[in-house]
């Protein structure tokens, strides 16, 4: 159950160290919030792990939608990758892929217990690339452990904006900014932390 965003080339893994997806299907692109189109990644595509410094293949992660909900590409005979899929490198447990740039496209997994006849077509929804332009990528440190999202060019605060925070640990938290452009309270930021925010 839940929303699973699609993965594209350049998306990070959750173990930091510049780990990222390094392969995608050319010609099959998703436009990112920065306006750049990136190749969509599928199961079996490669990702680089900066922890064990090797490349591994993307595999279906625990808790992710089954293949019946995923798009199948007949030319490469693979299903599309989503956030939460794992990378089989030399690390144990394996790192997971974080969807950052392909978030205009997602799979809405359904609660199968509530609907006995789910259809893969109905359950799949590719949202419009309604995400705003890249110039919106900026932040200012605020009081407490909130951050305020501001437009880098106009300086205006970004209210009700979807964002993803990649913590120094590599963990990812998703959220929507409030009416004042404030993010949620980041848990346990006892010290100044090097975080990345994507909108
Ligand atoms: Zn690794």
Determine Rg (CA atoms, Å): 17 Å
Structural class: mainly beta
Low-confidence stretches: 111-144, 188-192
Average pLDDT, rounded to a whole number, is: 75
String of helices and strands: EEEEEEEEEEHEEEEEE
Spatial arrangement of strands, main beta sheet: 2-5-6-9
Query: In whole angstroms, how far apart are the ends?
Result: 23 Å
Largest sheet: 4 strands, antiparallel
Count of discrete alpha- or pi-helical segments spanning 4 or more residues = 1
Which shape, going by the Cα principal axes? globular
Percent helix, as a range, is: under 10%
**Bound small molecules, deduplicated:** zinc ion
* Whole-number tally of structural domains: 2
The total count of strands amounts to 16
Sheet-strand content, in percent, reads 25-35%
Describe the 3D structure.
With 199 residues, the chain is an all-beta fold. The protein has two domains: 2-142, no CATH class; 146-199, no CATH class. 2% of the residues lie in helices and 30% in strands. It contains one helix and 16 strands. The chain has one helix at 120-123; strands at residues 2-5, 20-21, 25-31, 37-40, 46-49, 54-59, 72-73, 78-79, 86-88, 106-109, 124-125, 139-141, 147-149, 162-166, 172-176, 196-198. Strands 2-5-6-9 form a four-stranded antiparallel sheet, with no helix packed on it. A three-stranded antiparallel sheet has the order 1-10-11. It has a three-stranded antiparallel sheet with strand order 15-14-16, with no helix packed on it. Strand 12 and strand 13 (147-149) form a beta hairpin. The radius of gyration is 17 Å and the shape is globular. The relative contact order is 0.18. Residues 111-144 and 188-192 have low confidence and may be disordered.
């Amino acid at each position: 159950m839940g929303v699973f965003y699609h993965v594209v080339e350049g998306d990070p893994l959750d173990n930091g160290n510049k780990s990222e997806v390094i392969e995608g299907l050319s010609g099959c692109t998703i436009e990112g919030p920065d306006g750049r189109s990136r190749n969509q990644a599928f199961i079996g595509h490669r990702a680089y792990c900066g922890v064990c410094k090797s490349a591994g293949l993307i595999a279906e992660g625990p808790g992710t939608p089954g293949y019946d909900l995923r798009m199948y590409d007949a030319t490469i005979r693979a299903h599309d990758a989503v956030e939460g899929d794992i990378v089989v490198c030399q690390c144990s447990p394996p790192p997971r892929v974080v969807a950052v740039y392909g978030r205009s496209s997602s799979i809405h997994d359904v609660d199968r217990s509530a609907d006995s006849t789910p259809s893969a077509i109905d359950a799949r929804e590719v949202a419009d690339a309604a995400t705003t332009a890249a110039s919106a990528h900026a932040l200012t440190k605020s009081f407490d452990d909130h951050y305020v999202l501001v437009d880098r060019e106009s300086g205006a605060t970004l209210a009700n904006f979807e964002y993803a925070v990649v913590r120094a640990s590599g963990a990812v938290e998703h959220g929507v900014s409030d009416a004042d452009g404030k993010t949620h309270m980041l848990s346990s930021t006892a010290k100044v932390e090097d975080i990345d925010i994507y909108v």
